[in-house]
């Protein structure tokens, strides 16, 4: 496939899934780009995350213990989370993993297991739990994400730290919509939060830079112009305020480059390097 067509298709898909474009116009533009409805659908299938994709770490990996826990963030407001930790030894510090705009799905559970394999207590909260939990249809999940109240959702995420940190230093990472939540929590704080890593999440208003409470690492794909437009001004403001921020940019990488269930957007080299940097960051700050 011509690289320019592939890149334009990724940009159209990103606009559809993040900027509220209607499906009719999205399919029209994709069909014009691909040449036929069948070709457009095949292209979309390669870009979209596949729920059938194999996990990097199997759910029943014997090196880990996993479970789902439920709690309340406020009376009558339910919360739940996927918990993973090393088997046969005490887990290290807590690392909270915030999901994309598809909710808590198998891919994010897999990421939580990868974090746990590094020795941490990994918790991936389902921030759609107050609305009934993450649905199987990712389009419904995106609509539900859009209906969340930001202030209440920040408190929901903070509750995971209150429940699982045990008073220890804790880390935080998240992807896409979850990356934006990471930035938000890095500014607002959370019980025990000591280090935060954001993957391609839209950044807060630069005027909030002075509120940054913890060291922040940001992974930014070169081709993600939508997110870069918010990240770069925020990072500039953080540096001007003398705040601890590290920005890594990945040449040739697209939004969602870490999501190995998306064939067209996954960038193995960028994903591995970002993961190494993330784990080194946590090792430095969660001691």
What does this structure look like?
This protein is of the alpha/beta class. It has 9 helices and 8 strands. The protein has an 8-stranded mixed sheet, with helices on both faces. The chain is globular, with a radius of gyration of 18 Å. The protein starts with a helix and ends with a helix. The mean pLDDT is 92.
Write the layout of secondary structure elements.
Elements: H1 3-18, H2 23-34, H3 37-47, E1 64-74, E2 77-86, E3 94-98, H4 106-117, E4 121-126, H5 138-147, H6 150-164, E5 170-175, H7 177-188, E6 193-199, E7 216-221, H8 225-240, E8 245-250, H9 268-285
Parallel strand pairs: 3-4, 3-5, 5-6, 6-7, 7-8
Antiparallel strand pairs: 1-2, 2-4
Helix pairs in contact: 1-2, 2-3
Short description:
The protein has 287 residues and is an alpha/beta fold.
Determine the number of helices (DSSP H or I, runs of at least 4 residues): 9
* Integer average pLDDT: 92
Unreliable residue stretches: none
Query: Main beta sheet, described?
Result: 8 strands, mixed
Please identify the structural class as seen in this structure: alpha/beta
Fraction in helix:
40-55%
Strand content: 15-25%
